Inverse folding.
């Protein structure tokens, strides 16, 4: 079980009644500051090209690429790639500096079909023994694949909704001796069209910091749930600093160490009169 650090600070008793409990959630390091990707939301430009990003392929004539204004996940810009045929792969990429440890490469993609490959790769042959990383994840629709058996019904081949952004994630372990890593996202030997947005590369784990204020109501409990898991990553009921049967001292503060930086969480605060307040982290639009 994760080690939990919890502290409570004493305030004068609140006498006014507010409309809702206040729940503040941050991470250490902050997710934006921990992101090593330049121009992750594709909003910055270098001339007409997306700043910080480059495109590579052995067959440039097979691809139409660029920065697509208004095509991003939140209505902003996105990296765009159109592969005309299956003759070659092509990738948007950038290089980042790294240190030994566990990282995660994640982001969002929208596609009309085809095979997508997102991977983190790098090597250093000047050390003995040489070191390298090649962490990959394949996504996309099987519609454009000649390997699909003919007996699969059409509805099974529908693939991704071309109007919807989907998340991708690649776990990366950086060994000693590797200082730089390339992050690549593109089409893998199939025709199709892709948009990429909100790219993130950073530490696989961060500390989750929670501050809850009752705003005139006594706090009875604070719980943190991670999507896809049944056991809470934090519960004030299991915190030795929170005596059972007594209201939580306000503002209530807790730090949950070593949570997944790519996870989604729900923070639930219960009050003594039975109200329940929930906050999502990160927000759906982040």
């Amino acid at each position: 079980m994760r080690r939990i650090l919890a502290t409570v600070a004493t305030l004068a008793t609140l006498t006014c009644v507010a409309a809702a409990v206040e729940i503040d959630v941050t991470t250490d390091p902050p997710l934006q500051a921990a992101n090593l990707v330049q121009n992750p939301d594709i909003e910055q430009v270098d001339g007409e090209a997306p700043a910080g990003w480059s495109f590579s392929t052995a067959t440039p004539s097979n691809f139409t690429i660029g920065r697509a204004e208004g095509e991003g996940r939140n209505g902003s810009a996105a990296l765009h790639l159109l592969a005309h045929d299956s003759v070659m792969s092509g990738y948007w990429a950038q290089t980042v500096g790294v240190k030994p440890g566990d990282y995660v490469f994640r982001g969002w993609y929208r596609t009309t079909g085809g095979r997508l490959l997102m991977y983190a790769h790098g090597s250093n042959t000047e050390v003995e023994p040489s070191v390298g990383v090649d962490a990959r994840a394949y996504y996309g629709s099987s519609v454009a694949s000649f390997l699909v058996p003919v007996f699969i019904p059409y509805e099974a081949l529908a693939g991704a909704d071309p109007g919807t952004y989907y998340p991708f994630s690649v776990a990366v372990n950086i060994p000693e001796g590797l200082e730089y890593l390339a992050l690549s996202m593109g089409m893998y030997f199939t025709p199709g069209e892709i948009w990429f947005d909100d790219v993130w590369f950073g530490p696989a784990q961060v500390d989750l910091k929670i501050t809850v204020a009752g705003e005139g109501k006594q706090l009875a409990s604070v719980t943190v749930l991670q999507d896809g898991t049944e056991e809470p990553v934090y519960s004030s009921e299991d915190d030795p600093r929170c005596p059972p049967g007594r209201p939580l001292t306000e503002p209530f503060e807790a730090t949950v160490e070593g949570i997944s930086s790519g996870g989604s969480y729900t923070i639930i605060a219960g009050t003594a009169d039975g109200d329940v307040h929930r906050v999502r982290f990160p927000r759906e639009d982040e």
The longest strand covers residues 192-203. The radius of gyration is 23 Å. Helices lie at 31-34. Residues 1-19, 142-157 have pLDDT under 50 and may be disordered.
